Amino acid sequence: MSLSEQTIARPLRIFGLPPIIALCLFWLFAVIFVAIFADLLAPSHYTTQDLTARFRPPAFMTGGRFDHLLGTDHLGRDILSRIIYALRTSILIATFGTLLGAVVGTTIGLLAGRFRGIFDVFAMMLTDMQTALPSLFIAIALLAFFGNNIPLFIVLVSLEGWERYARLARGLSLSEQSADYIRAVEAFGAGTGRVVFRHLLPNIAASLVVQATLNFPATILLETSLSFLGLGVQPPGTSLGLMLGEGRRYLLNAWWIAVLPGIVIFLTTLAMSLFGDWLRDHLDPTVDKDH
Amino acid sequence: MSAPLLVAQNIARSYEMNRGLWQKASTVQAVSDVTLSVDRNETLGIVGESGSGKSTTGRVLLGLEPPTAGTVSFDGRRLPFIGSAEWKTQRTRMQMIYQDPLGALDRRLTVSVQMREPLDIHRIGTPAEREARVSELLRAVGLSAEVGRRYPHELSGGQRQRVVLARALSTRPDLLVCDEPVSALDVSIQAQVVNLLSDLQAELGLAMVFISHDLRVVRQISHRIAVMYLGRIVEEGDADDLFARPVHPYTRALVSAAPIPGRKINGRIMLRGEPPNPAKRPSGCAFHPRCTDAIARCSVEMPSLVDLGGGRKAACHLAGAASQAMPPIARAAENSAPAPGLCEGIA
Fold first, then answer.
1. Residues B251, A89: Cα–Cα separation, whole Å
2. Angstrom distance (rounded) from CA B194 to CA B198
């Protein structure tokens, strides 16, 4: 082994990924897997009550039993089963909410930046309106008016942050369009479709992906807030937010009811952020991928 | 005699400049009353300081911006409306080379993908033919076919500019507008790229417009040179002749400012005053506040571009035979007093 090989050690890789990113991906895949196969994985149904086994602590604590690995809540429902089902609801709502917001916001921003004029003015007016009105407030008003169902809930959750994608996409597309590589392609006679989808969008995608990963936790939090207020997912349905809300009252004597779903939220959003950060660097060919 | 390939007649280009919410938008005249022509096998150099409107002229000549006045004709026909189908088709015949080759290339696509793009856009040839054309072009600009698989940031500055050049040549254009093509390159690479440009031009019979502030480079490649100052052509003529006996005081100053190894610095004409600002155009001859030879007439009346014979044109009140005979120092002494506040304030 030569000297240079000794001093310049190759960084550790798991499937070609840095260990921490591999871990994040593992967690995210696990979350998705659990969300999809919730029916098969949950030890019991999330509504099954056992009033004789209320406030049972997790198995690793004194007084805990292995039939309720993560303990039970105030109605004797199995926390593990509830978390598994709650993951399904929360991930579904947050993922589709984030995606919907990202797609709609990016489209509006790109159109505004590309075509300018009256469309730009109108789009920016809309984003200003969205910024001025808290999305929680709009969501409460609309939920009270239209009643609660999952598709509507996803649309409302997507309100959280769509205007940030619009602003970002507009600003980035404006600055990129004045760059020579876009001008050059236009000087070759390229149409709008080619300019936008082949050059503009890939070049601004990294920032939008990072925005999406930053927004994902906010979407989960909006879902949490609404469920906590009783306007989101309705009992007997469950979501991580609803579990947090329900567990809040028992935080002092049965912390696991709120803290365990909280940890799941924390790990999921952290994994998403780290993965997004890595993805941004990876999407950029000018960044050395070994570092 | 057939008409030149590209003819610009009295073109002008102005921009609206917003100055805050309550102020009226002002108009900046970037280019005014420019008449130019370029033929096949010919290189026209456009020289001038930054802000002289040379890049805008280049974009108008290429049809990338509409002139606010005047006309540009290419191959005997007026340039079509920007964005029209005819305009798009015409893009294959006229191309542009940019100053910063890294900025002119998409950093997310490999070199060969980008070089194929003009062919993809205009559906020229089968995919296999396009690939073949890309490697042929890479060879023509002195790069190996392997370069095609790389990304722009993996190439050197000179290689990038060769790629940009090869891409511009992919559709076999008749006209090439080079906007400061070597300014961003190392001096050692500049010569290579300039030589490559002249070789390719001679080989392909291109008409070329070469825009630069670097007189040495322009002189090396151009057949004719137009000197621009604040959006107007102040002098135009045969390249070597223009350098040998510049008529306009501005050209004289530029020529004398070009560094020549071995020549002493103290013989140069030093330009006083601010560099040109198109938003604040002086009255009369735009150059008069900085001119060593300015007379009273210069601050009042704008000189028109006059044909001096021998292909030379100049826009200067003093550009007669008499003024040419006089050395600049002698005439500086007999300077009549310029309008107050126009010249003195700057010195």
1. 75
2. 6
A179 within some domain = yes
pLDDT digits (tens, 9 = 90+) for B18-63: 766 667 777 888 888 899 999 999 999 999 888 788 889 999 999 8
With 50 as the cut, is the pLDDT of residue B331 above it?
no
Looking at the 3D structure of chain B, how many domains does it have? 2
How many domains, in total, are found in chain A? 1
> Which chain B residues are within 8 Å of A281, Cβ to Cβ?
none
In a domain, B314, yes or no: yes
| B129, B144, B172 - which closes a domain | B172
Q: Is the CB of residue A190 less than 8 Å away from at least one CB of chain B?
A: yes
Q: What is the tens place of the pLDDT at every residue in A206-222?
A: 888 888 877 887 787 78
Q: Do B106 and A199 touch (CB under 8 A)?
A: yes
Domain that holds residue B263: 248-333
Q: What is the pLDDT of residues A171-208, one digit of tens each?
A: 999 998 888 899 899 888 888 888 888 899 888 888 88
pLDDT at B82: 86
- Considering only the beta carbons, identify the residue of B95, B108, B167 that sits closest to A202: B108
Please identify, among B156, B172, B188, the residue that sits at the C-terminal boundary of a domain. B172
Cα maximum dimension of chain A: 76
pTM, two decimals, is 0.76
Instruction: Decide if B122 touches A, using CB distance below 8 A.
Output: yes
ipTM of the complex: 0.79
Which one of A172, A176, A180 makes the best mutation probe of the B interface by having the most chain B beta carbons within 10 Å? A180
Mind listing the pLDDT tens digit for each residue in B109-132? 999 999 999 999 988 888 899 999
Q: What is the predicted pLDDT for the residue at B167? A: 92
CATH code of the domain covering residue A143: 1.10.3720.10
Residue A180 lies in a domain: yes
At residue B344, the pLDDT reads 38
- Asked whether residue B295 is domain-assigned, the answer is yes
Contact indicator for B264, B84 with CB cutoff of 8 Å: no
Residue A96: domain span: 86-283
For B102-106, which contacts have Cβ atoms below 8 Å and span 24 or more sequence positions? B102/B152, B102/B153, B102/B157, B102/B160, B103/A179, B103/A180, B103/A181, B104/A180, B104/A181, B104/A184, B104/B164, B105/A181, B105/A184, B105/B152, B105/B160, B105/B163, B105/B164, B106/A181, B106/A185, B106/A199, B106/A203, B106/B152
- Looking at per-residue confidence, does A72 or B48 come out higher? B48
Residue B53 lies inside a defined structural domain of this protein: no
